[in-house]
Amino acid sequence: QQAPVKTKIHFGKYSIFIKKNKNVKQKKKKKEESSGSDTSLEDDTSKGLDPGAFWINQARMRRVQVREFKGKPLVDIREMYMGAGGVAPGKKGISLSVSEWRQLKKLVSRIDEEIMKFT
């Protein structure tokens, strides 16, 4: 097994690290995940969530939600968990301001290029 490869992508004051081991098992897993996430986007991605919230990967309980905090809109990307009252937000996640969200959207093609180096 090869050592993990890390790539760091900057946007604003934040950085994203992409880490991947190059081996056959992970490629198969990635194909399974991508096919599952593609179909989830076609299905009702907001099933069981508040308005403005969508499942990124319901099996792994990851969701994105547009919400308001102190009068400002945020894009909240977060892992969820099953609490006593049902699905609840976990600590793992990030809330992006509108300007950070727009900056991330501008970086999507560059991030895709970096991902392609591993596949």
What this model shows, in words?
With 119 residues, this protein is α+β, with helices and mostly antiparallel strands. The chain contains 3 helices and 6 strands. Strands 3-4-5-6 form a 4-stranded antiparallel sheet. Strand 1 (5-11) and strand 2 form a beta hairpin. Mean pLDDT is 76; it is low at 26-42.
Mean pLDDT: 76
Major sheet details: 4 strands, antiparallel
Beta strand count: 6
Helix-strand string: EEHEEEEHH
Cα radius of gyration in angstroms: 16 Å
Shape: globular
- What distance lies between the first and last C-alpha atoms, to the nearest angstrom? 16 Å
Indicate the topology.
Layout: E1 5-11, E2 14-20, H1 24-42, E3 53-57, E4 62-69, E5 72-83, E6 86-97, H2 98-106, H3 108-116
Antiparallel strand pairs: 1-2, 3-4, 4-5, 5-6
